[in-house]
Description:
The protein is an alpha+beta fold.
Amino acid sequence: MKGRPMTNSDNSAVxxxxxxxxxxARADGELNAAILSADISASYEEFLAIVDxxxxxxxxxxxxxWPEALIGRARLKSLLEGFLAPVHVMAELGRLSVSxxxxxxPGDSLDEQHSQWSLSLVGGTGRAVRISWSVRRRWKHSxxxxxxxxxxxxxxxxxxxxxxxxxxxxxMEEFEWES
Length: 179
């Protein structure tokens, strides 16, 4: 499984946009590389820009067991912002370590790509939680038009405020929340 901390990297993929064979696979690789190289501790806005770059205006997002699809890039960005903004603050101020990894899953459709993802969160106390899931993306004209998340797993209990380490304003002490 490819993995690295969610920090900027100069190891982004260089792909040939003139090749029409496997364009969905190439676009999916570019999207995955962009996600893997984004730095959540610096900003969550980079992730929202990735959505603007790769997702269709009318993208349809489904997740097991959601009864209804989430439709539209604006709704997807709103959902992501609600998750990413707190993670960004905890990573920047609370010494939360965030890493993500991805592994392609072979498929048999030219316009559909599959991958397995893992998100690891480690608090300042060393307690960790790992969340993994699989994604199936449908592509059209180098844009994601459909995305389905499935096979979700969680290892470890959710982290709480007591797992964060926040420096005080004078920078000399640390504040720890009691459980």
